[in-house]
Amino acid sequence: MASKIVTKVLYIVFVVFLLSILVYLFVQIVLSLKQRNEVEEFVLKLLNSKTQKVATVVKESCQSCHSIETSFEQYHNPSTIGCISCHLGNPNESDKKLAHTGLVLFPGNLKVVEKTCGRSECHKEIALRVEKSLMNTMSGVVSVDKFVFGEIVKPVGKYKISEIGNTPAEVHLRNLCASCHLGKEKKEFGPIDEISRGGGCSSCHLQYEHKSIVEIDSFKRLKNFVPKYHPRISIHVEQIACFGCHSRSGRISTNYVGLMETTLGEIPKSDSSQFVKIADGRVFAKVQPDIHYTKGMTCIDCHTSREIMGDGHLYEHKEQQIEISCADCHFDGTPKTTQFDSLDNETKMIIYLRGWQSVTNKRFVVISKSSKAFSNVLFDQGKVIVLSKSKNKAWQAMPPSRTCLTQREMHPNLDCNACHIQWVPRCVSCHTYYEPTALGWDNLRDEEVSGCWMEKGGNFFASKPTLGNLFRNGKSIITTFIPGMILTIDGKAFPQNSFAKRSRFFAPTFSHTISKTALGCKECHLNPLVFGFGEGAFKLEKKGGRFQIVFQSNFELDSISGLPKDAWIGFEKFNLGHSTRTNASSFNYRQIRNMLSVGSCYFCHNWDTKKSIDIFSKDYKKLVTKKCFLPK
To answer: What is the pTM for the complete model shown?
Structure first.
């Protein structure tokens, strides 16, 4: 009898427990739907208020001729906002000439953006930010070039590429560099790639699908051809949009996908599978790509809208505009987070437009530098989750390994990329000269000019980065550097201020070649390239009864500087190496001696990384005997 009562009681408890769970789940679903409805209502109110202001024309004459087919998203669809919202013109006229009066073929160009994308009822705030962004001003490119040419004392100042004049450095920029800024006017139809650049808003958000690409040829050949397929305008920015400009200079885009530039004119027939020729004719060799690329991530999965389109402030160099860091996702412990209601309006709108209403009840990870939140990085159930901005995918960002944390204790000022960047692009001994009889191109005026700066590049390499100091807030951070400007400038034939100059400046870089596996201790502490001496090897030789470390370079010495052509600093005679940044330098003498004190152990000991960390995390000098060699 007692057992039956106990059974009944347990049954009732179980039923009550089950019902409480169901009630709890029901309440959570109701709350979630309520929050989702509030989010949708909030964003729709913003979007609809803009759409209603733009779509004031009941019927336009445009589509009587242009029977548009497109995969436009809702808020840029001609059926919602018409054609004149972007292209202007006269929508009440049926005559072609009158209808096309005031027509803008390329509404994304920053020259007209205040009348089109940047009008008050559309994206005015963003358009103003883009005007000030580094992708439009190219401030750092201008200041570094003028600095290397000797026109300014330091690579500082806020410049705009569109406002430069005709000094030797500025003509050099006009000839070779000024095609990449967003303000460059787009004048021809077609997708952005390694040849076609500029176009303001269109350079990222106007995406040509196959049908619209096919029509371009007909449009160019046939006089009265009327295109039918309009390119798509989308928030889902494709990687090729970044590739066009960022395959030059630091070659971030090519690094990311595992391509190293070569001096080849054509792909070798004997090993063609290992090479790629891109649209501008350059041939690249295949090397190891970034781990984030192999996982399927694109540029916009990491970089925020504030970085890409600017945050409304003018900056001198890109590292000032960049707000993210590795540690924002690969966090040790619990990251700082915020809820959806605390996000700024732009981030809320991005979340809605990407269709992520289901995550509005999650916690969004806050970026340490800017104190703004990611739109696509969540902290959920103790895990950092990164949502893909262009695919139906998500990744878990793993925390630092035990080795990383131990290394951080041993090297508290070591940047993540110092260990995790696999390789950097290196180009050394570049020769730049002015040819007064050559025909060149002014990329600002888009016209042919007489007289042009020419460049003859040295060999390209994919090798370990050099390490150096970057000073922030009174502290030194050890990070990666590449040859920024190892070049000879021959301006003797330039019509004014004729000169000749040699430069040897290294530039801090984040080369987007991240590997999960970090460099070992020996790979840093006994690699002359890491020190800044250039490629080669350290050897231990006995001279005068004592051992000495000698450096054997892979390259011949430069006749003027006395350094190997790929070096930042000298091994025999030390001088501090200078950078394209005022807050950066090579290792100093004390740092080099300390590194070699550790590195010299490897002349005798073949320790692996784990054993090395165990030894050097303790007072390893207690293990030193009279037989040991330590550099003076």
So the answer is: 0.88
